[in-house]
């Protein structure tokens, strides 16, 4: 791997669907010893580094370093980056706590039926949901699929609430102190006794469609699926069928195979489903967290040290 020279001009590539404005991130990076500009991907000729949400083909002929403000990088052509000597870094780790809080919020929402009351509020409906519908989260169990930075944050918070927590990963992950960690090849056995199944694994070829009809069938009828990772991990038609057939109790979904979720999707109309618009990491301090990581790497590059979160 080559190490690019010190950054002279850093472009924040304008994006359309991420809640953190490029201008806010530019302002957060005002103390860097280089020019920081907001540019379109087609205007990078005088830039040697770019901060972006998604890959743009223009990067391959113009910059030495690309940083994505996401954790996921499945849309980046890694071979092309390596061939051209372009360093790619991502933002793994900065959103773990933010997304974990959202995951716990979605679990609490389903456990207490809070979304039902929000729906009733529009009609000034004072009626309670059936007394036996809400349940105590702390007396239930959760299987966390993917025990990286995000999954470990979910597991830690769930355990603090008193939940019985186990996980699925390609590693034993003994440091988390979980009683059980299943290999991904045994995911059906892992989910079958959990009240909640929370997806926090990255989207890879090995995890695409991981939660399919067989995995959903292995879940309890009173279980809930929570996805705060990537939509492609779930076979969405199979999930819709499982929800229609009452094979599982419900779902809380922040991500989808195709985004935004199509207007005609049946998930919008299902009372036992909570839909959020890929907003689990959204927070008023997200820009500050990204800026800290970018600032650190911009200062590292040009030295003999490897940047944080290097992918290529």
Automatic annotation (TrEMBL):
<dbReference type="Pfam" id="PF02826">
    <property type="entry name" value="2-Hacid_dh_C"/>
</dbReference>
<protein>
    <submittedName>
        <fullName>D-2-hydroxyacid dehydrogenase</fullName>
    </submittedName>
</protein>
<dbReference type="GO" id="GO:0051287">
    <property type="term" value="F:NAD binding"/>
</dbReference>
<dbReference type="GO" id="GO:0016616">
    <property type="term" value="F:oxidoreductase activity, acting on the CH-OH group of donors, NAD or NADP as acceptor"/>
</dbReference>
<dbReference type="InterPro" id="IPR029753">
    <property type="entry name" value="D-isomer_DH_CS"/>
</dbReference>
<dbReference type="InterPro" id="IPR036291">
    <property type="entry name" value="NAD(P)-bd_dom_sf"/>
</dbReference>
<feature type="domain" description="D-isomer specific 2-hydroxyacid dehydrogenase NAD-binding">
    <location>
        <begin position="104"/>
        <end position="280"/>
    </location>
</feature>
<dbReference type="InterPro" id="IPR006140">
    <property type="entry name" value="D-isomer_DH_NAD-bd"/>
</dbReference>
<keyword id="KW-0520">NAD</keyword>
<keyword id="KW-0560">Oxidoreductase</keyword>
